[in-house]
Design goal:
Blueprint: H1 3-18, H2 31-53, H3 58-68, H4 74-90, H5 96-106, H6 113-126, H7 130-142, H8 148-157, H9 167-180, H10 185-195, H11 198-207, H12 215-229, H13 232-245, H14 250-260, E1 266-272, H15 279-294, E2 302-308, H16 313-325, E3 330-332, H17 337-343, E4 353-355, E5 369-371, H18 376-389, E6 394-399, H19 404-417, E7 421-427, H20 436-445, H21 449-462, E8 478-482, H22 485-497, E9 505-507, E10 527-530, H23 537-540, H24 543-556, H25 563-581, H26 587-593, E11 605-608, E12 614-617, E13 620-624, E14 627-630
Parallel strand pairs: 1-2, 1-3, 3-4, 4-5, 6-7, 6-8, 8-9, 9-10
Antiparallel strand pairs: 10-13, 11-12, 13-14
Helix pairs in contact: 2-3, 2-4, 3-4, 4-5, 4-6, 5-6, 6-7, 7-9, 9-10, 10-12, 11-13, 12-13, 12-14, 13-14, 15-24, 15-25, 16-17, 18-19
């Protein structure tokens, strides 16, 4: 080796020996040891939670969880803190809510964080704080680690709370529901737009609390609700907000059209039985029409032509001819099936008529005839679709053999048109209160034969012969009761006696006759039924319902409103918006009435189908703790 190179290497070695020494790194535990600690810790947490469920000493368990929350293993430490908060909330212990918030704040992305929001929601519910409970469930639905299990629990608990919560909390949950429930998105957005004040609408569209993709739909629903009430300034403001929040949306043009449409004079004809046998109902409907007209800012542009049908079909035809002579743009009424049927062959094809009869089948008699009704016969389509969407594929229908037989037949037709199967229609024996024998026979006739055959084969192969009773599952998914509330209350316990229990039970607003809760709904926790506008006021805290009640009280001095009044009010608002506010004429009115978006209404959002029947988006209710509440 040359001398120069040797000298250089020696110098480098000397320099390296003079460098400060780096302290050795602390020895880390092998990954295998860490995994073992985590596994042991999780097993310990599960053991402690099992002890708590079986009545163990809660203080000892919480102390152990507190110890584990200081564990070296990160997964153990995190879960222990959440479980500690969970048990504190369930036991309503001091500072339970603070413990839950601390866990969420410390580990916001943990898998148990959305559960902690839900535990907090149930805790607030126990404190009778429906609004705070809804706020926590909104956070549950919006959490990125949301699970299907939590979705089901939230949608089961939250909807009944909407009636108790204030506007902000209720609207916040409805918007969160719309983000999760893709199939029901329009429903939740429409409910949010209906419940939200103009101030809340401004906040939603300014703060961008709603995803941009959903903003146009919400804005359109909010604008349409204000269009129907005549609040054109509100419609214009919503159009401005949408132009800022989601520029380029096609809905902006629609809102501008609504807001800037030139009001024109319109003549609206009214056909009602103001004398004769049904005069009382005609007067109720006329009051609803007058309240609707008085609440519009452009009422001076509208002329009413009112004709009395005198509860007589022939008189109705002459009255209709008089309205045509007065050049009406649209006709509201008549009210009775007999007069509607008599008129159906005389209708002018360019003048739409919106009848309020319960005979929805009459709509097919004329293109000019539309049916807007709250009759239980119209509700069966809503309930058939609701049952189908909730996994009912095979149904049993029970009717009392009287007027409900038509309801039963219409439900059967509607359900089967969706692809479902009605296995049996049971007509209850009249003049009796004991249907147990009939229900037991129904139970026997609808046992699941496939399961029975398979079980019988297994028993023959593996077990000695013995006397035993085999309780088989029924072969259907749900029951529709075409009955009134008194019969439903009576039948519910007898269904349980016949071992037909735990299944969904569906029905119409006929249930609301004052007797449904005779047994405090003891066997009706799985019931689902519709409620019309009168019973629905408290459920939605709808400002339009409040306005209607106030206007009626101001005009007539009492609060004895009826569903018919509200139905007539809704019908009048639809007619005035079509003809005067939007300035539509003849065939353009027909096209607008068939708009698939439908019309906001006190009695339930309505959409006229191809046949001209107003399909109501009615709210579904159930019974919990002896009270009627919105269903999840």
């Amino acid at each position: 080796m040359p001398a120069a190179i040797f000298t250089l290497l020696s110098a480098l070695l000397l320099l390296s020996g003079c460098q400060p020494k780096t302290p050795p790194k602390a020895a880390q535990k092998p990954a295998r040891v860490q995994m073992q600690q985590a596994f042991t810790g999780n097993v310990e947490i599960q053991r402690l939670m099992a002890q708590a469920r079986s009545g163990g000493d809660i203080d000892t368990i919480l102390n152990e969880l507190k110890r584990l929350s200081a564990s070296e293993s990160e997964p153990v430490r995190e879960e222990a803190q959440f479980r500690q908060a969970q048990l504190m909330l369930e036991g309503d212990l001091p500072d339970a809510d603070e413990a839950a918030k601390a866990a969420i704040n410390r580990y916001p992305q943990h898998a148990l964080a959305p559960y902690a929001h839900f535990w907090l929601a149930r805790w607030w519910l126990e404190q009778d704080e429906a609004g705070r409970a809804l706020a926590q469930m909104s956070k549950t639905l919006r959490h990125p680690r949301l699970t299907r299990e939590l979705v089901d629990q939230v949608f089961d608990i939250a909807p009944p709370l909407l009636q108790e919560a204030d506007e902000r909390d209720a609207v916040g949950w409805l918007l969160a529901a719309a983000e999760i429930d893709f199939a029901g998105r329009d429903h939740w957005l429409r409910m949010a737009a209906r419940r939200a004040s103009m101030e809340t609408v401004e906040e939603i569209m300014t703060d961008r609390t709603l995803p941009k993709s959903m903003m146009p739909t919400f804005a359109l629903f909010a604008g349409r609700a204000r269009l129907m009430s005549g609040d054109m300034q509100g419609v214009a403001r919503i159009a401005q907000l949408l132009a800022t929040a989601a520029p380029g949306s096609s809905e902006i043009d629609q809102l501008h059209d609504w807001a800037s449409g030139r009001i024109r004079a319109a003549t609206i004809g009214v056909l009602l039985p103001l004398s004769g046998q049904y005069a009382r109902f005609g007067q109720q409907a006329l009051r609803g029409i007058r309240i609707a007209l008085s609440g519009l800012e452009y009422d001076d542009y509208i002329t009413l032509r009112i004709e009395d049908t005198a509860s007589d079909p022939d008189r109705a035809v002459r009255a209709y001819q008089q309205l045509l002579n007065d050049s009406v743009n649209i006709v509201i009424g008549p009210l009775l099936a007999s007069t509607t049927e008599a008129l159906s062959s005389h209708l002018d094809p360019d003048i739409p008529m919106i009848s309020m009869t319960g005979r929805t089948d009459l709509a097919s008699r004329s293109e000019a005839l539309f049916i807007h009704t709250l009759s239980p016969l119209a509700q069966v389509h809503v309930m058939a679709e609701y049952a189908w969407l909730h996994d009912a594929k095979r149904m049993v229908v029970i009717a009392d053999g009287g007027g409900s037989q038509t309801e039963a037949e219409m439900f059967k037709t509607a359900f089967e048109s969706l692809g479902g199967e009605v296995l049996q229609t049971l007509e209850l024996t009249p003049d009796t209160m004991d249907y147990r024998d009939q229900l037991r026979q129904l139970r026997y006739d609808t046992d699941d034969d496939t399961v029975l055959a398979a079980l019988d084969e297994d028993l023959n192969l593996f077990l000695p012969k013995m006397d035993m009773e085999i309780r088989m599952p029924v072969g259907f998914d749900a029951v529709y009761l075409a009955l009134n509330g008194k019969q439903v209350a009576l039948l519910a316990g007898q269904l349980a006696y016949a071992d037909i229990s735990g299944l969904p039970i569906y029905g119409s607003s006929r249930w609301r006759d004052g007797h449904l809760l005779d047994d405090r709904g003891r066997y009706l926790s799985h019931a689902r039924f519709t409620i019309t506008g009168g019973d629905n006021q408290k459920a939605h805290d709808d400002p339009q319902l409040q306005h209607f009640a106030f206007a009626y009280r101001e005009a007539w001095g009492d609060a004895n409103t009826t569903d018919l009044m509200r139905l007539a009010y809704d019908t009048m608002r639809i007619a005035t918006v079509m003809t005067s506010r939007l300035g539509l004429e003849k065939r353009d009115v027909f096209e607008a009435l068939h708009d698939p978006d439908g019309f906001p209404a006190l009695t339930g959002h309505v959409r006229f189908d191809d046949a001209g029947v107003g399909q109501k988006q009615l709210d579904i209710f159930t019974i919990k703790r002896g009270a009627v509440v919105p269903a999840g």
